[in-house]
Specification:
Blueprint: H1 19-26, E1 30-34, E2 37-40, H2 42-61, E3 65-66, E4 72-74, H3 76-80, H4 83-86, E5 92-95, E6 101-104, H5 109-119, E7 128-137, E8 152-162, H6 165-185, E9 190-194, E10 205-211, E11 217-221, E12 227-229, E13 250-253, H7 260-270, E14 283-292, E15 298-306, H8 313-320, E16 324-327, H9 330-335, E17 358-361, E18 370-374, E19 380-386, E20 395-396, E21 416-430, H10 432-437, E22 440-442, E23 448-450, E24 452-459, H11 460-471, E25 488-492, H12 497-512, E26 517-520, H13 526-536, E27 540-544, E28 552-557, E29 562-567, H14 571-580
Parallel strand pairs: 3-7, 14-18, 15-17, 17-20, 25-26, 25-27
Antiparallel strand pairs: 1-2, 4-6, 5-6, 7-8, 8-24, 9-10, 10-21, 11-12, 11-21, 13-19, 14-15, 14-16, 18-19, 21-24, 22-23, 27-28, 28-29
The chain binds adenosine-5'-triphosphate (ATP) and magnesium ion.
Adenosine-5'-triphosphate binds next to strand 8, strand 21, strand 24 and helix 11.
Length: 581
């Protein structure tokens, strides 16, 4: 410790939002170089390398072959797949001295596809899995929580190449199994959930989420085994309802009812129902957004959904990607005078109606459903407006918030919500990239066929933070044995040379037994040393101090929180046994 390049800090970094960030900085594992950009210090780098080793072993075990691409890449391949534009502001773009456009790779589908196209030409060359553990760059809108969401981060990305769908499925299944082994070995509690495939395109896709309160992802689970990222939940449409007996729509005065709450109150006061009171789910709320595409074009979009639900930002983002939806601003309203703010209804929405604004509705808005909704006039709402009879939309959009207790889409019971950290993502890209970049091989009959691909990522640097986040306590880090930078922290307390000599000897013996030891030989107080040992989080702490006179040392288990006195004669054996589990 007296030589290790580390300075533990007693103060939390000002920008620390989550415990892992706080402890990794205070423990001297990482150091911020710029927002979302971190330097790995010796302790942190040892953990990062252990994660890499686990990932590498499991990728090798499924036959993956490691390569290493540059991070600095030419524009052209990304131009061909349109991602130069579609990636939007998340892409770090730069120019070389000749003025050529370059980028820092956010992910490498294009490069892998072109590499295989470059060298392979026959079905006999397939199947193939290539991977790399490499630094990625994304100019994230909200870099957060230290290395949990960085703008520079380490990812394992692999790509499978197959001649047919069965091959792709087999490669996908192998990756899924490898990921299960990886996340088991990392000691994470995780769930595998259905995912959206996002900017990558493609179809079948799952995410591995570490269960964590501070996670940015929300996922749902049902008692019957349904599990999905909230972005990927497709609620399905109810059956249409008969509406022959429905009363005609009627416009009513609804003063000061620009919120759903106020509208429900006014409706119950002025137009009470006989069977039950009105509630928010009887109202149809219409929200207008301006969609901004990566190429700069803009287009308005109106979304109609039951008034008791909000539009879920993440579900919306996932549905509209690569476009970004921004709520209508005053100037947008000014450009569409038929929109009466607070009283917008289907009467003006839709490509065929006066505003011309594309109008998409929640899947619950099926034919025959009856709504209270804006009458497109100040202080007025229309009642008994029947979908399919009085209005239609231009299509369906499934972006309403999902709530605990909502039915699972597959009928497997009520949904529970929880939060997680996305650790890995596997998906079947299919032929999208191979098509765009012309990756074809000759099949058995000598015919050119397009290769089908999968793409699979693990957040390697994120895993360091995620493990820290899910294992730390109020005193600091608590590394699982597979990831700890050292197996043992050896703390010598007390002044005598006897203690120091014994401790130094013990460190050497442990070292010879293949145990990695961080020996705290500093001339600091026992209090400082213990606090640092707890902060740094090695799974085993050995205390050599006062007990030595009675022939014992103390063995502490950081994870279990237990301590025991061990006779000096048995010390090495007992420590080795604890470390090896
Ligand atoms: P997120 O939704 O968290 O932004 P993503 O869907 O953009 O992730 P992928 O493109 O699938 O992620 O990347 C594969 C893996 O890389 C993710 O599962 C995650 O573990 C990791 N990862 C992605 N972005 C970051 C980042 N900014 N910092 C650290 N790790 C990241
Ligand atoms: Mg992302």
């Amino acid at each position: 410790m007296s030589e290790l390049f580390v300075r533990t800090l007693r103060e939390d970094p000002a920008d620390a939002e989550v415990p892992s960030h706080r402890w990794l900085v205070r423990g001297g594992y990482i150091r911020r170089a710029a927002p979302g950009i971190y330097t790995w210090l010796p302790l942190g780098l040892r953990v990062l390398h252990k994660v890499e080793d686990i990932v590498r072993e499991e990728m090798d075990a499924i036959g993956g072959q490691e390569v290493h691409f540059p991070a600095l890449l030419p524009r052209e391949p990304y131009e061909l797949t349109n991602r130069w534009i579609e990636y939007g502001p998340n892409l770090f773009r730069l120019k070389d001295r000749k003025g050529n456009d370059m980028l820092l790779g956010p992910t490498h589908e294009e490069m892998f596809t072109l590499l295989v196209k470059d060298l392979y030409s026959s079905y006999k060359d397939l199947p193939l899995v290539l991977y790399q553990i490499q630094t990625k760059y994304r100019d994230e809108a909200r870099p957060r929580a230290g290395v949990l969401r960085g703008r520079e981060f380490v990812m394992k990305d692999s790509y499978s190449f197959d001649i047919d769908d069965a091959g792709l499925q087999a490669a996908y299944d192998k990756h899924r199994d490898a990921y299960i082994r990886i996340f088991d070995r990392l000691g994470l509690e995780y769930v595998i959930v259905q995912a959206m495939s996002g900017a990558m395109g493609g179809s079948a896709s799952e995410e591995f989420l570490a269960v964590a309160e501070n996670g940015e992802d929300t996922f749902v689970r049902s008692p019957g085994g349904y599990a999905a990222n909230v972005e990927a939940v497709a609620i399905g449409a109810p059956e249409p309802l008969p509406y022959d007996a429905a009363p005609a729509a009627h416009v009513e005065d609804t003063p000061d009812s620009t919120t759903i709450e106020a509208l429900v109150r006014v409706a119950n006061d002025l137009q009470p129902r006989t069977d039950r009171p009105w509630d928010g789910s009887d109202t149809l709320k219409n929200v207008v957004f301006m969609l901004e595409y990566p190429d700069g074009t803009k287009e308005p979009l109106a979304i109609g959904l039951p008034g008791d639900r909000e539009v879920d930002e993440k579900r919306l983002e996932a549905q509209l990607e690569p476009a970004v939806a921004v709520p209508f601003a005053e100037e947008d309203f000014a450009r569409y005078p038929s929109l009466v703010k607070g009283y917008i209804g289907p009467g003006v929405l839709g490509e065929e109606n006066s505003s011309g604004i594309r109008y998409l509705t929640d899947p619950r808005v099926v034919e025959g459903t009856r709504w209270i909704t804006g009458a497109d006039a100040p202080q007025k709402h229309v009642f008994d407006l029947v979908c399919g009879r009085d209005f239609t939309s231009d299509g369906v959009i499934d972006v309403a918030e999902i709530r605990a207790g909502d039915p699972s889409p597959d009928g497997s019971g009520p949904l529970q919500l929880a939060r997680g950290i996305e650790m890995g993502h596997i998906f079947q890209l299919g032929r999208k990239y191979a098509d765009a970049l012309g990756l074809k091989v000759l099949d058995q009959n000598g015919k050119q066929v397009t290769v089908t691909m999968g793409s699979y990522g693990v957040g390697v640097s994120r895993a360091v933070a995620a493990v820290a986040e899910t294992t730390c306590d109020e005193k600091g880090l608590r590394w699982p044995r597979a990831l700890a930078p050292f197996d043992v922290q050896l703390v010598a307390t007390g002044k005598g040379t006897e203690v120091a000599d014994y401790a130094a000897g013990l460190a050497q013996e442990l070292d010879a037994a293949g145990i990695t030891v961080l020996y705290d030989d500093r001339k600091a107080s026992p209090g400082v040393k213990f606090a640092d040992a707890e902060l740094l989080g090695m799974p085993t702490t050995v205390v050599v101090g006062r007990g030595l006179a009675e022939g014992v040392v103390e063995l502490r288990d950081r994870i279990e929180g237990t301590a025991e006195q061990v006779p000096v004669a048995e010390a090495v054996e007992r420590i080795v046994a604890q470390v090896r589990g």
